[in-house]
Amino acid sequence: VKKGKLPIEELRRRFPQIVGFHFVSSYSGEGISELQDNIIKSALAQTYMGEKIPEAWLTLERQIDKLRENKALLKFHEVEDVGNTVGILDNVELVQAVQFLHDLGSVQFFNTPFLKSHVVIVSQWIVDVMACIVTVHEGPIKEGKFYYTDMPTVWAKYPEELHPWLLRLTEEFDLTFPLSNEEANIVPCLLPNAEPQYDFTPVNKDNNERETKMIYNFDYLPAGLFNRVQVRLHQFSDSSVMWKAGFMLKKNNHRALLRQTSNTQ
Protein backbone atom coordinates (compact mmCIF):
# COMPACT_ATOMS: atom_id res chain seq x y z
CA VAL A 1 0.00 0.00 0.00
CA LYS A 2 1.45 3.34 -0.98
CA LYS A 3 1.86 5.86 1.83
CA GLY A 4 -0.52 8.33 0.26
CA LYS A 5 -3.29 5.76 -0.06
CA LEU A 6 -3.39 4.73 3.59
CA PRO A 7 -6.01 6.80 5.52
CA ILE A 8 -3.90 7.08 8.66
CA GLU A 9 -5.93 9.71 10.49
CA GLU A 10 -9.22 7.95 9.79
CA LEU A 11 -7.79 4.65 11.01
CA ARG A 12 -6.46 6.30 14.17
CA ARG A 13 -9.89 7.75 14.84
CA ARG A 14 -11.73 4.48 14.28
CA PHE A 15 -9.18 2.28 16.04
CA PRO A 16 -7.60 4.22 18.93
CA GLN A 17 -5.69 1.11 20.01
CA ILE A 18 -3.35 1.50 17.01
CA VAL A 19 0.12 2.29 18.35
CA GLY A 20 1.73 3.46 15.14
CA PHE A 21 2.22 3.03 11.41
CA HIS A 22 5.40 1.72 9.82
CA PHE A 23 6.11 1.54 6.12
CA VAL A 24 8.48 -1.33 5.47
CA SER A 25 10.03 -3.17 2.56
CA SER A 26 10.68 -6.90 2.72
CA TYR A 27 12.93 -6.43 -0.32
CA SER A 28 15.30 -3.73 0.92
CA GLY A 29 14.69 -4.08 4.65
CA GLU A 30 13.68 -0.45 4.91
CA GLY A 31 11.78 0.32 8.12
CA ILE A 32 12.14 -3.19 9.59
CA SER A 33 14.42 -2.21 12.48
CA GLU A 34 12.15 0.70 13.45
CA LEU A 35 9.16 -1.65 13.41
CA GLN A 36 10.99 -4.15 15.63
CA ASP A 37 11.96 -1.42 18.09
CA ASN A 38 8.38 -0.16 18.30
CA ILE A 39 7.00 -3.68 18.83
CA ILE A 40 9.44 -4.24 21.70
CA LYS A 41 8.64 -0.83 23.19
CA SER A 42 4.89 -1.47 22.98
CA ALA A 43 5.26 -4.95 24.48
CA LEU A 44 7.29 -3.65 27.41
CA ALA A 45 4.60 -1.05 28.09
CA GLN A 46 1.91 -3.70 28.67
CA THR A 47 0.57 -3.87 32.22
CA TYR A 48 1.47 -7.54 32.66
CA MET A 49 5.16 -6.97 31.88
CA GLY A 50 7.29 -7.47 34.94
CA GLU A 51 5.05 -10.12 36.42
CA LYS A 52 6.97 -13.04 37.83
CA ILE A 53 6.41 -16.42 36.20
CA PRO A 54 7.27 -19.62 38.09
CA GLU A 55 10.49 -21.08 36.72
CA ALA A 56 8.85 -24.52 36.62
CA TRP A 57 6.26 -23.23 34.13
CA LEU A 58 8.96 -21.98 31.76
CA THR A 59 10.86 -25.23 32.16
CA LEU A 60 7.65 -27.09 31.30
CA GLU A 61 7.45 -25.09 28.07
CA ARG A 62 11.04 -25.96 27.17
CA GLN A 63 10.45 -29.66 27.85
CA ILE A 64 7.29 -29.68 25.74
CA ASP A 65 9.19 -27.92 22.97
CA LYS A 66 11.61 -30.87 22.83
CA LEU A 67 8.69 -33.23 22.16
CA ARG A 68 7.53 -31.36 19.07
CA GLU A 69 9.95 -33.18 16.79
CA ASN A 70 8.04 -36.44 17.19
CA LYS A 71 4.58 -35.46 18.46
CA ALA A 72 1.90 -32.89 17.75
CA LEU A 73 -0.64 -34.01 20.34
CA LEU A 74 -0.14 -35.11 23.94
CA LYS A 75 -2.56 -36.86 26.22
CA PHE A 76 -2.96 -34.87 29.40
CA HIS A 77 -1.41 -37.63 31.49
CA GLU A 78 1.72 -37.25 29.33
CA VAL A 79 1.77 -33.56 30.21
CA GLU A 80 1.39 -34.57 33.85
CA ASP A 81 4.46 -36.79 33.51
CA VAL A 82 6.46 -33.90 32.06
CA GLY A 83 5.15 -31.63 34.81
CA ASN A 84 6.32 -34.05 37.48
CA THR A 85 9.85 -34.01 36.07
CA VAL A 86 10.04 -30.20 36.35
CA GLY A 87 8.55 -30.00 39.83
CA ILE A 88 4.86 -29.35 39.10
CA LEU A 89 3.22 -32.01 41.24
CA ASP A 90 -0.14 -30.38 41.95
CA ASN A 91 -2.77 -30.92 39.25
CA VAL A 92 -4.37 -27.51 39.83
CA GLU A 93 -1.04 -25.78 39.27
CA LEU A 94 -0.38 -27.90 36.20
CA VAL A 95 -3.67 -26.80 34.63
CA GLN A 96 -2.75 -23.19 35.43
CA ALA A 97 0.65 -23.65 33.81
CA VAL A 98 -0.79 -25.25 30.66
CA GLN A 99 -3.45 -22.54 30.46
CA PHE A 100 -0.67 -19.95 30.73
CA LEU A 101 1.19 -21.59 27.84
CA HIS A 102 -2.08 -21.63 25.89
CA ASP A 103 -2.50 -17.89 26.47
CA LEU A 104 1.04 -17.37 25.18
CA GLY A 105 0.22 -19.41 22.07
CA SER A 106 2.82 -22.04 22.89
CA VAL A 107 0.23 -24.84 23.14
CA GLN A 108 -3.49 -25.21 22.50
CA PHE A 109 -5.43 -26.40 25.53
CA PHE A 110 -9.21 -26.42 25.81
CA ASN A 111 -10.23 -26.73 29.44
CA THR A 112 -13.63 -28.32 28.87
CA PRO A 113 -14.79 -31.64 30.34
CA PHE A 114 -14.27 -33.46 27.03
CA LEU A 115 -11.39 -31.67 25.32
CA LYS A 116 -9.08 -31.29 28.32
CA SER A 117 -7.94 -34.89 27.84
CA HIS A 118 -5.41 -33.74 25.22
CA VAL A 119 -3.03 -30.84 24.61
CA VAL A 120 -2.02 -29.76 21.11
CA ILE A 121 1.66 -28.78 21.01
CA VAL A 122 1.93 -28.08 17.25
CA SER A 123 -0.65 -25.54 16.09
CA GLN A 124 -0.39 -26.58 12.42
CA TRP A 125 -1.83 -29.93 13.48
CA ILE A 126 -5.20 -28.28 14.18
CA VAL A 127 -5.16 -26.63 10.75
CA ASP A 128 -4.53 -30.01 9.14
CA VAL A 129 -7.42 -31.58 11.07
CA MET A 130 -9.83 -28.87 9.90
CA ALA A 131 -8.52 -29.09 6.34
CA CYS A 132 -9.70 -32.70 6.19
CA ILE A 133 -13.26 -31.30 6.35
CA VAL A 134 -12.99 -28.05 4.41
CA THR A 135 -11.04 -29.18 1.37
CA VAL A 136 -11.07 -28.68 -2.38
CA HIS A 137 -10.91 -32.43 -2.83
CA GLU A 138 -14.00 -34.56 -3.24
CA GLY A 139 -15.06 -36.07 0.08
CA PRO A 140 -17.96 -37.82 1.79
CA ILE A 141 -19.46 -34.61 3.25
CA LYS A 142 -22.37 -33.74 0.99
CA GLU A 143 -24.41 -30.53 1.25
CA GLY A 144 -22.83 -29.68 4.57
CA LYS A 145 -23.84 -32.84 6.44
CA PHE A 146 -21.00 -34.71 8.18
CA TYR A 147 -22.23 -38.17 9.18
CA TYR A 148 -20.39 -39.83 12.04
CA THR A 149 -20.01 -42.97 9.95
CA ASP A 150 -17.81 -40.94 7.59
CA MET A 151 -15.27 -39.98 10.26
CA PRO A 152 -12.96 -42.93 9.44
CA THR A 153 -12.82 -41.68 5.84
CA VAL A 154 -12.43 -37.98 6.62
CA TRP A 155 -9.80 -38.55 9.31
CA ALA A 156 -8.23 -41.70 7.90
CA LYS A 157 -4.72 -40.64 8.95
CA TYR A 158 -5.71 -40.13 12.59
CA PRO A 159 -6.35 -42.91 15.15
CA GLU A 160 -10.00 -43.93 15.18
CA GLU A 161 -10.27 -43.61 18.96
CA LEU A 162 -9.36 -39.93 18.53
CA HIS A 163 -12.18 -39.17 16.07
CA PRO A 164 -14.82 -38.16 18.69
CA TRP A 165 -12.28 -35.75 20.18
CA LEU A 166 -11.55 -34.27 16.75
CA LEU A 167 -15.26 -33.83 16.11
CA ARG A 168 -15.68 -31.94 19.37
CA LEU A 169 -12.67 -29.83 18.40
CA THR A 170 -14.46 -28.73 15.22
CA GLU A 171 -17.37 -27.62 17.40
CA GLU A 172 -15.01 -25.68 19.66
CA PHE A 173 -13.74 -23.77 16.62
CA ASP A 174 -17.28 -23.04 15.38
CA LEU A 175 -16.72 -25.12 12.26
CA THR A 176 -19.55 -27.60 12.91
CA PHE A 177 -22.49 -28.18 15.21
CA PRO A 178 -24.35 -31.41 16.09
CA LEU A 179 -27.85 -32.32 14.95
CA SER A 180 -30.23 -33.46 17.65
CA ASN A 181 -32.17 -35.87 15.43
CA GLU A 182 -29.35 -37.45 13.40
CA GLU A 183 -25.92 -38.96 13.95
CA ALA A 184 -24.32 -36.09 12.09
CA ASN A 185 -22.88 -32.59 12.37
CA ILE A 186 -23.64 -29.67 10.09
CA VAL A 187 -20.72 -27.85 8.44
CA PRO A 188 -22.28 -24.46 7.56
CA CYS A 189 -19.52 -23.37 5.18
CA LEU A 190 -20.21 -26.49 3.08
CA LEU A 191 -23.98 -26.02 2.91
CA PRO A 192 -25.61 -25.47 -0.52
CA ASN A 193 -25.49 -21.95 -1.92
CA ALA A 194 -29.07 -22.12 -3.20
CA GLU A 195 -31.80 -20.83 -0.90
CA PRO A 196 -34.31 -23.66 -0.28
CA GLN A 197 -38.08 -23.47 -0.41
CA TYR A 198 -39.62 -22.85 2.99
CA ASP A 199 -42.83 -21.65 4.58
CA PHE A 200 -42.61 -18.32 6.38
CA THR A 201 -46.17 -17.54 7.41
CA PRO A 202 -47.04 -13.84 7.05
CA VAL A 203 -47.58 -11.83 10.21
CA ASN A 204 -51.13 -11.88 11.55
CA LYS A 205 -51.65 -8.30 12.70
CA ASP A 206 -55.12 -9.13 14.00
CA ASN A 207 -53.44 -11.45 16.49
CA ASN A 208 -51.15 -8.67 17.76
CA GLU A 209 -48.17 -10.09 15.87
CA ARG A 210 -45.44 -7.67 14.84
CA GLU A 211 -42.67 -7.87 12.29
CA THR A 212 -39.31 -6.09 12.48
CA LYS A 213 -36.67 -5.89 9.79
CA MET A 214 -33.07 -4.97 10.57
CA ILE A 215 -30.19 -4.56 8.14
CA TYR A 216 -26.61 -4.61 9.42
CA ASN A 217 -24.10 -2.90 7.15
CA PHE A 218 -20.38 -3.56 7.50
CA ASP A 219 -17.38 -2.08 5.76
CA TYR A 220 -16.40 -5.68 5.15
CA LEU A 221 -17.86 -8.99 6.30
CA PRO A 222 -15.05 -11.56 6.58
CA ALA A 223 -15.60 -14.87 4.82
CA GLY A 224 -16.87 -17.49 7.23
CA LEU A 225 -18.11 -15.07 9.88
CA PHE A 226 -21.77 -15.63 9.01
CA ASN A 227 -21.23 -19.40 9.17
CA ARG A 228 -19.84 -18.98 12.69
CA VAL A 229 -23.04 -17.14 13.59
CA GLN A 230 -24.97 -20.15 12.31
CA VAL A 231 -22.96 -22.40 14.62
CA ARG A 232 -23.40 -20.12 17.64
CA LEU A 233 -27.18 -19.91 17.15
CA HIS A 234 -27.80 -23.47 16.04
CA GLN A 235 -29.82 -24.33 19.16
CA PHE A 236 -32.50 -21.94 17.90
CA SER A 237 -32.33 -22.99 14.26
CA ASP A 238 -34.49 -25.24 12.17
CA SER A 239 -31.79 -27.29 10.46
CA SER A 240 -34.18 -28.12 7.63
CA VAL A 241 -34.19 -24.43 6.64
CA MET A 242 -30.53 -23.59 6.38
CA TRP A 243 -28.21 -22.79 3.52
CA LYS A 244 -24.77 -21.28 3.24
CA ALA A 245 -26.00 -17.68 3.41
CA GLY A 246 -29.11 -17.96 5.55
CA PHE A 247 -31.16 -19.83 8.12
CA MET A 248 -34.37 -19.68 10.10
CA LEU A 249 -34.50 -19.30 13.88
CA LYS A 250 -37.27 -20.14 16.32
CA LYS A 251 -37.45 -19.34 20.01
CA ASN A 252 -40.64 -19.55 22.06
CA ASN A 253 -43.26 -17.93 19.82
CA HIS A 254 -40.76 -15.84 17.88
CA ARG A 255 -39.37 -16.48 14.42
CA ALA A 256 -36.46 -14.92 12.57
CA LEU A 257 -34.92 -15.25 9.15
CA LEU A 258 -31.23 -14.30 8.91
CA ARG A 259 -29.57 -13.85 5.54
CA GLN A 260 -26.22 -12.62 4.30
CA THR A 261 -26.90 -10.77 1.07
CA SER A 262 -23.40 -9.50 0.23
CA ASN A 263 -19.85 -9.11 1.55
CA THR A 264 -20.99 -6.05 3.48
CA GLN A 265 -24.59 -6.85 4.49
TrEMBL record:
Ranges where the COR domain occurs: 54-191
A Pfam family that the UniProt record links to this protein: COR-B
Taxonomic lineage from the root: Eukaryota, Metazoa, Spiralia, Lophotrochozoa, Mollusca
InterPro entries associated with the record: COR-A (IPR032171), COR-B (IPR057263), WH-like_DNA-bd_sf (IPR036388)
Domain C-terminal of Roc COR-B: 210-262
Keyword annotations from UniProtKB, A to Z: Repeat
Protein known as: COR domain-containing protein
Keyword Cytoplasm attributed: no
